[in-house]
Amino acid sequence: VQLVESGGGLVQPGGSLRLSCAASGFTFSGYAMSWYRQAPGKERELVAIISNTIGNLNYADSVKGRFTISRDNAKNTVYLQMNSLKPEDTAVYYCSVYRGVRYWGQGTQVTVSS
For residue 53, what pLDDT is reported? Predict the structure, then answer.
């Protein structure tokens, strides 16, 4: 299993970013995919999850209405569109899949600051 995130960076408050996670080594369309984040000094937390094919979505309360998770099973890629970003969204964002054990990508840094 390999998960490779991209798209992080520095953005001003109110700005937008789109994260991507390219997956390989497993049947992508068969598994729910999720995004987590970890801010300095805090525990890793679930941000959003998307089911495998039905497209059921769930979000942390802190990002509802601002973030959108989506997937392209033809490209083995999951996305996280982040709008109206706030300084408290600053964290390392991780893509993840659970296949008996939880697999993680290397993470991508998102910094929201003026």
Answer: 75
